[in-house]
Amino acid sequence: MDQGFNDLPPLNALRIFETVSRHLNFRLAADELGVTQGAVAQQIRGLEASLGLKLFERHPRTLRLTEAGRGYAVSVRQALLLINEATQMLRPAPQRVTLSVTPTFAARWILPRLPAFTAAHPDIDLRIMASERLAQFYQDGVDLAVRYGEPPFGAGLNATLLFRYELMAVASPALLARLGDPQQAGERFPYTLLHDGHNLWPPFLAHVFPQGAPATPANLRFNQTALAIDAALGEQGIALTTPRFVQNELASGRLAPAFATRLLVEAGWYLVSPRRPRQHAPLDAVRQWLLSEADV
Description:
Elements: H1 11-23, H2 26-33, H3 37-51, E1 56-58, E2 63-65, H4 67-90, E3 95-101, H5 103-110, H6 114-120, E4 124-130, H7 137-140, E5 144-149, E6 157-171, H8 173-179, E7 193-195, H9 201-208, E8 219-221, H10 225-233, E9 238-241, H11 247-252, E10 256-257, E11 263-274, H12 281-294
Parallel strand pairs: 3-4, 3-5, 7-8, 7-9
Antiparallel strand pairs: 1-2, 5-11, 6-9, 6-10, 6-11
Helix pairs in contact: 1-2, 1-3, 1-4, 2-3
C-alpha cells in the first residue's frame, strides 16, 4: 500500500538546507533567501532534529558539512532541480523578443515608449540590447534590430524604413540668448559645434550657408548623438539630431532650434530582421508597435 511521503521533512527546510550547503554560511544563505539569519539557523536545527543527525559541523567562522550532510546535500539539490524543471514545464514559455538598437535610439526613442508597450503587451518579454554593432541575428539570439544607414544591411536581411533623418540643429535657449542668432553670426561664429558619429555638420552648414559657411568654429566630438544632445542641454554648443529624439526637450523649452531650416538626408532608421524569423506572433506585435510609433 502506498504510504505517500509522510516521512518527508518540510520543503522549506530542505530549500534552506540546500542554500546553506552551497554557502556554508548562515548569513549568506539568509541574504539569498531574503530571511533573517536566525530563521535559517532555526530551520537547520529543526531539520537536524527531525532527521536525528547532524548535517553541519559548526566552527567559529564557518560551517562544514558532515559526511551525512554532504550526501544529503547532493540528493536534495537534485530533487529540487527536478521539481523546478517540472514546474517550469507547466508554465507557458515567455513570448520573448530580443531587439537590438543603437545606444542613442534606445535612450532617446525606445525608453520613453516602453511603459506603453509593456502595458499593452504584458505577455511579451521584450529584451533591449544597445550596441552600435549590427547584430549577428542567429548567433546573438536577436530577433529584430533598428539601425541607421541605407539598405542593404546584409545578405538574408529585410529592411523596413522607420523614418528618415530630418536633421535639425538644437541648443539651449540660454546659450542662444547669450550668443545671439547663429544665422546672423557673420564671419566669426561664436558657437561650438557638437559632433556625433554621423559627421553631418559639413552638409548641414552648406545647406544653411549656401554662400559659404563662417570661419571654422570650435568643435567637440562624441561617438553618439545622445552625448551631443546632453552637451547641448548643458549649454556647451549646438548639436545635430532628429526632432524625434528631442521631442520632450523641445516641448519643455530645454532645447530650441538653432536654425530655422532643416535638412533631410538620404539615410534613415530601418527595422532590420532575418527573412526567416524565429517566431511569429510576438515578433509581429513588436514589429507593428515600432512601425506605428514611427508613423506618429
